[in-house]
Specification:
Structural class: alpha/beta
CATH superfamily: Alpha/Beta hydrolase fold, catalytic domain
Number of strands: 6
Radius of gyration: 15 Å
Number of helices: 5
Length: 182
């Protein structure tokens, strides 16, 4: 099972996470937060923990976007649980002094090696995270780094709706084939 952990304001209908859920409802599940506009780490990670109890974690690939990535690494640090793998796309730099103050509790971002396979996907011109910071996160977490040139925040307004490369990365992590049909 692939569990989507969206970022701030959730992922709209044109976002790759939403498109994947619509195309593959038996393979993708979204964890919905109670407050998408003011992410709170304690509440978000508790919700992740609550929702994941219905799944066999050894078969779960977490798919985070933006602050959803920070939620995943904070969830792991808080609860100490392992999943099969995680795809961390455009991770937010919650430690940046200019980071929005209405997103609370995610800093300091855990930078310990994650005990499950991870891929960090980073853009060279993401306004939410400097590329060098994304590389640093990948290194600290023990992640494979996949770089996309000039992809913005890897979201619909940056040209990322259907995103076949993301499906291929998930398949790589999950050791299965998802044939893009979008």
């Amino acid at each position: 099972m692939h569990i989507n952990i969206p970022g701030l304001r959730n992922s709209g209908p044109d976002h790759w996470q939403s498109l994947w859920e619509a195309a593959y409802p038996e393979q993708f599940y979204r964890i919905n937060q109670h407050n998408w506009d003011q992410p709170d780490c304690a509440l978000w990670t508790a919700r992740i923990e609550q929702e994941l109890q219905q799944f066999d974690l050894s078969e779960v690939v977490l798919v985070g976007h933006s602050v959803g990535c920070a939620a995943i690494v904070n969830w792991h640090q808080r609860f100490g649980k392992r999943v099969k793998a995680a795809l961390l796309v455009a991770p937010s730099d919650v430690d940046n002094p200019d980071y929005p103050s209405y997103i609370t509790g995610f800093s300091p971002l855990p930078l310990q090696n994650l005990p499950f396979p991870t891929i960090v996907v980073a853009s060279t011109n993401d306004h939410v995270v400097n590329y060098s910071r994304a590389k640093h996160f990948a290194n600290c977490w023990g992640s494979e780094l996949v770089t996309i040139e000039n992809a913005g925040h890897i979201e619909p307004k940056s040209g990322y709706g259907p995103w076949d490369q993301g499906l291929e990365l998930i398949a790589q992590l999950h050791n299965q084939t998802i044939v893009p049909k979008l």
